[in-house]
Amino acid sequence: AFKAAVLIQQWYRRHVARLEMRRRCTWRIFQSIEYACEQDQIQLHNFFSYLMDQFTPSSSKERDFISRMFISGESYKEAELEKYCDYEAIEVPDSYTGPRLSFPLLPDHATALLEAFQQKQQLHARYVLNLLHETRKHLKQLPNISHVSTCYSEEVTVCGDLHGQLDDLFLIFYKNGLPSPSKSYVFNGDFVDRGKQSLEILVILFTFLLIYPKEVHLNRGNHEDHMVNLRYGFCAGLSTMSRALCKVHGKKILKMFQNVFCWLPLATLIDHKVLIIHGGISDTTNLNMLEKIQRDKFTSVLRLKKRREFSRKPEIQAINGESESGTDAAGNDAAPRLSLQPQSAQAPSAANRLEFSRWLRQTVQEQIDTCRRLVDISESEPEELTYSSAVSLKDVDEPCWTRQEEWKQILDVLWSDPLPQEGCRENKVRGGGCYFGPDVTEKFLEKYSLQFLIRSHECKQEGYEFCHNRKVLTIFSASNYYEIGSNRGAYVKLGPDLIPHFVQYQANKTAHLLTMTQRQGFAVALISRVEESAFRALREKLFAHTSALISAFKAYDTDDTGRITLSNWATAVESVLQLGLPWRMLRPQLVRSTKDGMLEYKSWLDDLAMEQRSQEHIQSSLLEVIYRNRSNLETIFRIIDRDHSGLISFEEFQQTWKLFSSHMKIELTDDGINDLVRSIDFNKDGNIDFNEFLEAFRLVKQCP
C-alpha cells in the first residue's frame, strides 16, 4: 500500500509538472504574438507619420482632408466640440425601450444600466453623448495624479485591465460590492479593446465616476489611445453597436471618446505611499513633471508631432530667459517671427508671485490678440480654466519642459514593463516605453517616499504577480484573456495598513456548476483547448512568413536537398519570427514527422498551407500575404474610414491613394484614381467595404 501510494504520488507530480510546462509554453506563445502585434501597430503608425511628413498637398482641400483624417481629435476647440457633439438636438424615439439617463446622475441610474446591459440592451446615442459631455467636464477639473485616502473608506479596491470584458466587471461588483461612499475603487486603465463590450464598460465606469466622484478613480491606460483603438477593436465595436445610430452619431461618439480619454488622470496615489500607474516607470520618470503636464495635448501617445515641438522652442527659451540668435546655423537671416518678450510693460519681480502671474497673463493675452489680428481670426469665447492650466499659471516660475520630454513621461508611464535585470532600457518587444529593473524601482520609491507600486498592463496567469522584491505589484482583471481558461482575473484591496489582499476569479458560466472531480477533468480539457488555440495562432504566424522561412532554410541547405536539421530549423524560425520562443521544446507540436533527425521543410510548409487554405481558388503565396498583412489592412481601412461606418467613400479612398502614391512615386491622374476606385466597388453601391478592400488587394497581388 505504501509503495502504491508513492507511485501514485510520483505519477501525479509528473502529471502536474507536464501540465504546468504545457501551460507555460502556451502562455509564452500568446504573449509573444500579442507583443509582436503591438510592435506592428507602432511600426504602422510610424509609417503613416513618415507619409504625412513627406506628403505635400496640392490644394487646401487635400490639406484639410488629410489633416482631418490623421490628426483627428486635436483640431476641435472647446466651443466647437460642444457644438459638434450637440446631444440635445438628438431625439429619442418613443419606440426606444432601453435605459434613460437624467443629470445629475443618481445610484438608481447606475443600477438600471447594470440591469439593462445584463439583458443585452443598448444605451441610446443621446445619452451616451450626454454622459461623455458630463464626464469630460468632470475630468477636466481633476489633477494628473489623483489622491486617495483610506481614512474616508474602509478599503480601496484596485482593478487592472478589463479590455471590454463586461462579465469580469459584473463579477467584481458581485464579489466586492458596487462603488459607494464606503467602498472606493481605482480602475487602472485599459478599459477598452479586444473584448466586445468596451462601450458598456465605459458607460458603467463613467456613470459611477459622476455619482461618486470622490470614491471612483480612473487612470489612463495605453489602450485609451485613438491610434491603438483603430487596431484593437474599440472603433470597430462602436460601428457595430447599432448600425442605424452609429451611421448618424457614431463619428460624434468616437470624437468625444477620443477627447475624454486624453483627460483621464495618469496616476493615483493612495495615502501618499502607494502609486498606481498603468504601465511602469523609467529612470527619468519625474512625478513633479507628470503633475504639471497638460495631459489633454496627447490624444494619442503614439503620435508625437515634431513640427509643433519646433514651433514651441522660442516660447520655452523666452520663458526660461534664454536668448536666441536672429540668424540660422548657416548665418542667414532667420524668418521674421513674433517676439514673445513683453513690449507693453516691464516685467515685475518674480518674487511677487501674484503680481508676476497677473502680468504674465496680461502679456500672453496681448500676444494672442496680436496673432489674431495678423491672421484675421475673430475672438472666440475663452476656454474654461482647467486644473492643468491653473497649475501652469500658479507655477510660472518653474522651468518649462519640451513637448518631447512631456511625451516621454506619459509614454513611459503607460507602456513600460518591469524586468528582473537591473537597469533601464528601451522596450523593443512592445515597441514603446521601457524595461525597468529593481534598482530603478528602488531609487524611485526612495526619492518619493513610497512603499510600493501597483501597475497593470501585463496579463498574469494568476491575475496578479509581485516582482522587484515585492515592490512592484501587477494586477490584471480580465480573466480568460487569451482563451477560455488561459488565466484568472484578480483585484487587490488595500486597507489603512496598505497590506494587499487579493481576490481571484474566472468568469465562466459553467465551471461553478461542476463537482470537484468534474472540475479537475474540466481543467485538463481547458489546458488542451488553450494549448490548441495557441499553436493554431502560432501556425498562422509561421504560414504568414512562408517566403522568409524558405530563404532562411535554404541558407542551411547549401546542397539544395530540401532537408535541414531540427536544430537549424529552430534557429531559422527564430531568426524570421523573432518571438523569443523555445522552438526546440515546441517542435513536437509543430513538426509532425522527421526522417533521421532531418526535416523536409518544403513538405512541412505545404502542410501549413493546407491547414490555412480556406478557399481552393486562393493561391498559397497570396494567402500568405493576406495572413501576414490582414491586421495592418484592417487598421489602414479604419484610418481611411473616418466616420467608422464600415464603409470607405470614394473621396476618402482617392485622397488616401494620393498619399500612398506620393510615397511610392507612382504617377496617377485623378481620372486614373477614379477608375481604380470604381473598379474596387464590386457591388456598385458608391462605397467600399472591408471585403471589397481585401478583394482588391487579392486581385492586385494576383496580377503578373
Automatic annotation (TrEMBL):
Q: Where is the EF-hand domain?
A: 544-579, 628-663, 668-703
Name the chemical reaction catalysed here. Answer: O-phospho-L-seryl-[protein] + H2O = L-seryl-[protein] + phosphate; O-phospho-L-threonyl-[protein] + H2O = L-threonyl-[protein] + phosphate
Looking up Gene3D superfamilies in the UniProt record yields: 3.60.21.10, EF-hand (1.10.238.10)
Catalytic EC class: hydrolase
Identify the PROSITE patterns for this entry: EF_HAND_1 (PS00018), EF_HAND_2 (PS50222), IQ (PS50096), SER_THR_PHOSPHATASE (PS00125)
Stretches the record annotates as Disordered: 315-346
Q: Which GO terms describe its biological process?
A: detection of stimulus involved in sensory perception; negative regulation of MAPK cascade
Q: Which UniProt keywords apply?
A: Calcium, Hydrolase, Manganese, Metal-binding, Repeat
| A single GO molecular function term of this UniProt record | protein serine/threonine phosphatase activity
Q: What is its EC number?
A: 3.1.3.16
Carries keyword Mitochondrion? no
Which segments cross the bilayer? none
Co-factor requirement: Mn(2+)
The record's annotation in InterPro entries points to: Calcineurin-like_PHP, EF-hand-dom_pair, EF_Hand_1_Ca_BS, EF_hand_dom, Metallo-depent_PP-like, PPP_dom, PPP_phosphatase, Ser/Thr-Pase_EF-hand_contain
Q: Which family does it belong to?
A: Belongs to the PPP phosphatase family.
Q: What is this protein called?
A: Serine/threonine-protein phosphatase
Q: Which gene encodes it?
A: Ppef2
